[in-house]
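Risk register update: the risk of archive-format incompatibility is retired. Evidence:
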Amino acid sequence: MSAKQRRKLRVVFASAEAAPFSKTGGLGDVAGSLPQALVAAGCRVVVMLPKYGTIKQEYVDQMEHVCDFYLNMGWRSEYCGLERIQKDGVDYYFIDNEHFFKRDGLYGYFDDGERFAFFSKAITESLQYLPDFRCDILHCNDWQTALAPVFLREYYQGLPLYDNVRTVFSIHNAKFQGMYGDSVLDTAGLLPAPNAVRQLYCAPDTINYMQGALIYSDLLSTVSPTYAQELKTPFFGEGLDGLFRQRSESLHGILNGIDTKAFDPATDPAIAANFSVGDMAGKAACKAALQEELGLEVNPGRPLVAMVTRLTKQKGLDLVQYSLERLLGRSIQVAVLGTGDSTYEDSLRYFDWKYQGSMCARIDFDLGLSQRMYAGADMFLMPSLFEPCGLSQMISMRYGTLPIVRETGGLKDSVIPYNQFTGEGTGFSFANFNGEEMADCVLNAAEVFWTNKSAWAQLQRQAMEVDFSWTAAANRYIEMYGWLHPEVIPQERA
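Archived output:
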């Protein structure tokens, strides 16, 4: 073992997206927030991203060209530029290749397999070009970066600048694995590595990028402790449960955080009135304004249940469809914001038409309205079939809007169900993926809202006081990094 060193851990955080540069979902939020928290906790952090054509011009104008080189990708050589922006103490490096990344969107193209094989190889190649930065930890996220640990081990391990690099791979959603026909082995430049080729096959003629990362990475992480356990089962493991069980000792569940400055009812400029755990008066004003905006009866005595979500089966929309008649018949108001499968969109439009004043369906993506719904609703419904982490339940709790969740993944880890005998709790939960059970849970919450105002107020305070900042998560990641580099004494903690 190397002699003990007192210094900052040097982390390269690789992701296909990161706010504010690029974002399609939760991964963008995580990659936009966690690196900053790691810097605050005492790490040096570099973030690696593709230079998409969708990045705002204001950021492109700030980019500084660092270097360029060519990558061997099978039978051809591909240009790779490296551009840099420094923001909030983090160095963001953008992999530039217009052929692969200058497009109208991030994903969903016929050559995604080739695009992100290139991105993964570019990440590993770039480690030697980072000015004044010798990587300790290469932290890759989801299938788009999953080949980086494979390339590192097969092509770079043993080279002087790479001998210190250890790898962490984070699974944000195992449903999306990067599965392609085996012709991609040639275009990705993997054919000269027969050991990798053998381990990447998940079926005849099919290559699985995530499978490669699960085999080749030193440690694995995912976005909640419960999801880490769920991944070892056939339903949640999506065909990789055997690998997750094999690597059980290396798999760690670390709950995501949220940006507590952006989601703060005391300062949020997007809501009708500000409020805090010490002064909740503004919450009622937010509810009245939301009811009026959505065309619902303005009535403080009617519980308002909100959903801000993708309208998909995974998010529990089957349960919502099944239960809406029962809930709306009990004087409960329901407001849904989101887009998704047309069957769910049409169904919600029907309920909106039939139950005017009680039901509102906004088939749209509207960030401002989502903030107002977090602030103005009484309850926030998340009946997910599966949910690796979830962020909306944490955001709603910040605004004193009590979550109603199914006990799965990060929903189970972040919401303490109400106990009427002790007063404990930060929301409500139900166990089974069942419409009647979900409706019972919503009605039980409504009963507390109607009959026990003091208990409701206590639950709101308890929910708002939970610390969902990224600080706790960052400390857990640094602890995990430390297992891979025990010779480093983190400078800020020595």
